[in-house]
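hey can u run this one w/ tryptophanyl-5'AMP bound, need the structure tokens asap thx
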Amino acid sequence: MPRVLSGIQPTADSFHLGNYLGALRNWVAMQQEYQTFFSIVDLHAITVPTDPDELRNRTRLSYAQLLAFGLDPERSCIFVQSQVPQHAELAWVMQCLTGFGEASRMTQFKDKSAREGGESASVGLFTYPVLQAADILLYQADRVPVGEDQRQHLELTRDLSQRFNGRYGNTFVVPEAYIVKDTARVVDLQNPLAKMSKSLPAGCLFLLDDPKAMEKKIKRAVTDSVGEVHFDPVNQPGVSNLLVVVAAMSDRSVADVTDEFGGGGYGPLKQAAADVILPFARDFADRVEALMADRAELDRIMDDGARRARNVAEVTIADVYDKVGLRRSK
Ligand code: TYM
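ok here u go:
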């Protein structure tokens, strides 16, 4: 069976609609046909200043959310990155293969470091994409389901795997990004030119948010002055986003939803969005709450996932150490 790996950062109290439609929904679906590995990437979270207790809580809460979306710990290996030391070990080897200029071209680093105050951004934030490459390569993943914003990191991962293979002999599978076009970039409800992101909370639909607040955000979603629904992402990005969201949340095609709402006003489309999102979010919140209530069981599942991940990761890192000429203790 081909392998899949993906990861998500535990950096908010709730995942948002962009995470779900861009990535997590595909993770759930891919469990059927792939051998799947999914990680809460807490080592990535500390690349910006993070409160320890908040991180601990969010890691657990993030893990519960993955289960609540339908990831099945029997089918998938679901683990917390910091419990698998091989990630940091392979990241170091890969950093030594990455050019400084190459890393400097990563656009997410440029955006995030600007937000962190430029020069005071951490070196960890700079090498973050290399750690991400290590996450993927450790598991010999064939496919990596992500949103559009991760495409450049996937290109770097491919380059690094090929470079390693060229220098030390065939070692890594060269992974491919798996990006579902329609939902690859869910946009911000307040600014349809930006992607939906936890760093812009006003236009971000957090799925564990209070239902009333969510409804308000949907109803106040910024549209345009055309006045009629059309699927036209260039001229009507907000409205087109709502069409995509309604389609994805109800397992319909965008064309089908556009047929239903096209030519009409914006009110009914927003209502339809609320009608598909709110019941889903309510169910989701209930499942998360139940999972969080049994902390011992959740911790047991997390530890079990980590054990399985370590077994797979150790095979790769032992091979890498050997090829590079490093000694590994047995
Ligand atoms: P993160 O935690 O920012 O986001 C998790 C996933 O959600 C997707 N996503 C979106 N998709 C569509 N529309 C949006 N508005 C939107 N916002 C977020 C992201 O593309 C991502 O797939 N660097 C990664 C985490 C990571 C990782 C990995 C991913 C670490 N190691 C290995 C894949 C493989 C990140 O920060 O994602």
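The chain has a mean pLDDT of 97. anyway lmk if its weird
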